[in-house]
Description:
Largest sheet: 7 strands, antiparallel
Number of strands: 17
Number of helices: 15
Distance between the termini: 33 Å
Shape: globular
Structural class: alpha+beta
CATH topology of the largest domain: Alpha-Beta Plaits
Radius of gyration: 24 Å
Amino acid sequence: MTVDRLFSNLRERGIPVIRENFDEYLRDESRFIGTADGLVRVHDERGVVDLLTLANHWRVPLTVVSGKTSLTGSCVPLGGVIVDVRGLDFIDPRDPSRVGPGLVLRQYKDSLRGKGFFYPPDPTSEDSCTLGGTVACNASGALSFLYGPTREHIRGLKIALPFGSVLNVERGEVLSTGDSFIVPRTRLSPRLDRDLVIPRPRKGARPWRECKNAAGLYSADPMDLVDLFIGSEGILGIILEIRTILLPPRNPSFALLLSLPAREALVDLVLFLHHVRRWVRDGDAAAQPDKARAFKALTGEDFGSFPQRFGSLLPACLEWFGSSVTALFPPQRAERFTGAYGCLYVEQEYSPTEDPFAVASQWGELIQLINGFRESVSGRVEVEVALDEKQVRGWRNERKGVPEKLNEMIGPGMVKIGMDFAVPPSQLPWLMDLYDGMLPAGKSFVFGHIGNAHLHVNLVPESPEEAREFRTLYTTIAREVIDKGGSLSGEHGIGKLKHDALQMMLGGEGIVEIARIKQVLDPYSILNRNNMFRMGSRDVCNRIGST
């Protein structure tokens, strides 16, 4: 068997192979279980390059594994060899922005805090996910409303390509020209005998501010080569080093929990804050009239007399918890949902020179205006404030506990059907109306990153028949989201479990584009097979072969 020859070659080079007792590496958080012939743990660049070179020679599939926090089966092997990269867990002592892919995100952020830096990406799994995994899926998290996803905070990558060369590239060094990247052979080690030409993805993501997206390869024109690998789910290379963009320490913050009586108040408030962010943080002049219109819709007042009084309302975090998730919170918090449409969790930063009470009073004044305009029709907005850092941290932990408690509700032999859909923010009112009208009461749970018009919908079936019904509902809603210019994955990616969703979103030509790019960098398709699209698909192979 070729895999036995690979293992023999690895041992000759001093790379140990584990052939049994590695069951924990055959699954991820999706509950999907795979198979493998063995496990290799790598600890340095030389070991990764040797493994890739030999696996490419013997055509043995490799599946890269680190934190195993994926919800899409992306790190679940389907035969071949598992590559554990957690040994690549270094932080450059001279430059903390240079870090290994195997380092746990929480450990990295804690280390940076002690050095006076801040790295914003904060997925719920940050206590166990690794830097490499977050880059591979372009992870985001609760702070993505203000700071954006991982892509915004990566300045360079060192990547081992499947044919054995190492690519070292900084942002801005290699940009696409037309429909391709031309990578000078001098950037590859060992060098090729010619420049490397990689097709540029032409179907894919818009900028995250327009629609949050983690489905398929990133696409832009022109496009930076660094962005090709971020969010590529490991199908194009193995990350050896990540160069992050570090920020000064995060400003202090306080938290608000707003109980909203009706959908209209929620969407109008979120849209107003979205336009504020566009105006203040993004410098988008077109947001000024949008902000004024949104303020009028929210409060019934003209914004012209209020700009100074609401100048600090720029939340870092906007998280939504529909009334459907009431049972997933502690009893004392669940009281907040009584009679409400749901609760909006807000984290508001303030500069060290600002008085937090003064900033909080701006929120109080805005809520008074909302209540004065809407209370008699839809009910009163109630607010709870946490100014103490310990209390804010406790609220955040309650939010992080929601997915865990949801998983505990899943019965034996059942799986939840999860929607990770996102739409352009302008379509948020439509999305909330769609969910309210189509989701089954008592069986659906809605929460997530409403500031990015990206909500997590989880359907929990109690029987195989109900599971089939929910899958049909998933497809129906997915088609509606696509028609509105949305994405079928805001942050979880595609992995091995959502091929049909990506096909629905990009069409056959979009899948073929991804396969063509993979073919250039991974001609024998050894790396992370079946992530994004099904390897060996006759239709895909025929279309590649015809070009």
